[in-house]
Amino acid sequence: MQTHARLGLLIPAVNTESEPQFNRYAPQGMRIHVMRARIAGDPSKSLDDLKPVIAGSVDILGDARPDLVVFHCTGTSMKEGVAGDKGLIELVERRSGVKACSTIALVVEALRTLDMKKVTVLSPYPSNSDAENYLAECGIETAASVALALKSGADYPTVTPQQWIDLAIANDSSQSDGFFLSCTNTTQIEAIEGIEKATGKPVVNSNQAVLWGATRRLVDKAGNGVLHSSLGRLAHLI
Questions:
Q1: For residues 134 and 107, is the Cβ–Cβ distance under 8 A?
Q2: CATH for 106-205, among 3.30.310.50, 3.40.50.720, 3.40.640.10, 3.40.50.1860?
């Protein structure tokens, strides 16, 4: 009997944060299998432009026989709205032969679970317009928004957890139910506890939401309740 569940992640080639964070925070019984692809960083490329790269990368990731595949680039999955995201997931499922989801879809699922109807959006992106538009399509309002406009995805991890905490405190809004910290290639996950303690509001981050959402989906894939017994490790994340 299989005693572990396999999570496949398709991440941007520049991403250096997701792998160590997932390997640190994933519950016992979940194995992380990562494939990199150049799926971010060029705003001139449409999702149609990226689909051949995505398809080829998912084909390779599929060799690891994951139980679930996550298209793990928040920015790319938001760029053409809910319809564009849905098309990406259909492509990933077709090529991998297993269930798939996107980071932004799991973020929205987490926000709804926490009853967050108005959020403060913080990111390292040039602009948060794609995030704001995607959330609006899902019925979630943006109460406040800050994009750090860093030059390159390679610069995103240079923002420290304390800087994310300070940014959240400085931009907390009385109209906001909590915070959405967007991007998979950041140290944001290490700032969650500090932000929640300082503001008294919940925080959802891209990597955290995927760990949570994937665990919910894979819990029945691992034998002997391995993932069931480990869910407590994620409690502080969401």
A1: no
A2: 3.40.50.1860
As beta bridge partners, residue 10 has 35, 71
Q: In whole angstroms, what separates CA 204 from the centre of its chain?
A: 9
pLDDT, residue 43, reads: 82
Evaluate if residue 113 carries a pLDDT over 70: yes
Top-level class of domain 5-102+208-234: alpha beta
Question: pLDDT-based confidence at 62, cuts 50/70/90?
Answer: very high
